[in-house]
What we know:
The chain starts with a helix and ends in a 23-residue tail after the last strand. By secondary structure, it is mostly helical. Helix 13 (about 335-365) runs antiparallel to helix 14 (about 370-385). The protein folds into 3 domains: about 1-205, MFS general substrate transporter like domains (Growth Hormone, Chain: A, Up-down Bundle); about 235-440, Growth Hormone, Chain: A; about 440-505, no CATH class. The strands form 2 sheets. A 4-stranded mixed beta sheet has the order 3-6-4-5, with no helix packed on it. A two-stranded antiparallel sheet has the order 1-2. The chain contains 19 helices and 6 strands. It has helices at about 5-30, 30-40, 45-70, 75-95, 100-110, 115-125, 130-155, 175-195, 220, 240-270, 275-295, 305-325, 335-365, 370-385, 405-410, 415-430, 445-450, 465, 470-485; strands at about 160-165, 170-175, 210, 225-230, 440, 490-495. It is found in: Membrane. Keywords: Membrane, Transmembrane, Transmembrane helix. InterPro entries: MFS, MFS_dom, MFS_Domain-Containing_Protein, MFS_trans_sf. It holds the Pfam family MFS_1.
Amino acid sequence: MGSESERRFFLASxxxxxxxxxxxxxxxxxxxxxxxxxxxAGMSYHGYGIASLAFSAMISAxxxxxxxxxxxxxxxxxxxxxxxxxxxxxVYFAFPNANMIIVARMISGLGWGLEGALxxxxxxxxxxxxxxxxLALALITRQAGIIAGPLSVQFFEKIKFxxxxxxxxxxVNQHNFPGxxxxxxxxxxxxxxxxxxxxxxxxxxxxxxxLIESDENEExxxxxxxxxxxxxxxxxxxxIVVAAVxxxxxxxxxxxxxxxxxxxxxHFFGWEPxxxxxxxxxxGLISFIGYLSIQxxxxxxxxxxxxxxxxxxxxxxxxxxxxxxxxATFRAxxxxxxxxxxxxxxxxxxxxxxxxSASILSxxxxxxQQSQAQTIRTCGEVAAQIFGPFWVPSxxxxxxxxxxxxxxxxxxxxxxxxxxxxxxxxxxxxxxxKPEDVEPYMEDYMLAGNGLDPIAKFxxxxxxxxxxxxxxxxxxxxxxxxxxKLDHRIRTRTISKSETPSKLVDSILISEPRQN
Length: 516
């Protein structure tokens, strides 16, 4: 199997995991409340069940990411993480008890934390030109699973059977059937990963390195020149911080909207579960098309443009909600079109923020920090799932107190301020939000592996031996080095090994000093 075929198979294997994780999200979330009710649990257990999954995912995600970056592979963490998903879903359907349901979701959350490690491995495998499309494809697959889930839930109502395993008599009904089907599904995925999953060879970047052109060729080189960092930058850097903040703000808004939309339609439209189920299906389809559109937009736009478009659209949707709630009345005709437009904008542009932020994180992070960078986004997502719903329930409390609508609307103002801040950060950092223009820092041995001949800084009597250049050139190079104040980003191109030293006088590749 060729390298390109290996990469396609690797991406398909990752998408297999994302598909089932999307299905799990979409069939457990709408049914877990009724499962708790069927075992006599109170309403508070519903929140505990959702939060327990997110909490354990926050714990496991950094661990998987650290291991994945250390090994430069996801093979081990995949096999371990999926086992937690299998065990968690087995407990979910085998032990119909309120406390055991929470334990089951917590165990499943340990497998849910694999997302960051997988996204990091995808970013490590594909080059700068293909990162966005590859990461978007993984997210599209998850969205397909989210769409498929609600369509299948309607067939669960008549399911009722029992069986015995390990001496345990298990009764399966419509409430715990999601755990049963997911346990089987994750077992199939685990077997597939054990037998067929392989980490693919990283895809080389085109025009990976360039050398400084002489002054007379400077203008002609502007379109092709790139930059290389001469110092290793940690994971906390400007594009990563901005992308992570935008991602967290959007996930926080999404989590709140998921909790807001059902009471909104019930309060103003009088919709029943049937109408809401249809609405969620349409919402999923719009988001799916939004993810697909990114595949075409990458040909004419960059990640920072789609990121700004996404956060701007989310801010517009918030403004619409803030304007509607105080004046809307039950089944007012003008509310419907406003609602439909807001839903369309939010669901279409939400993928822009999610996909572009994941791509910026991947492009800005070094290869040995890919999974950790993606885990920042993943932890923000699960944290938003925990905290997002808290600001929504009070919005639709039925009360006769005057001015309640204004107070309800003001709850959303802080979220609008947050989204406005994201827009401002993106614009202020615009120049630095295209990390593909900067070549990551490489050690001397990595430079040599890329066909580059590193030259040490000239600052002592050992310059000639360190640089492996004729002594006659050292004084000229040292004088040039003194006059030059080196920036952390040095324009470079590949030096041909057949180039004579005299051709390096006008154009010099400088790397970090070697440690003797």
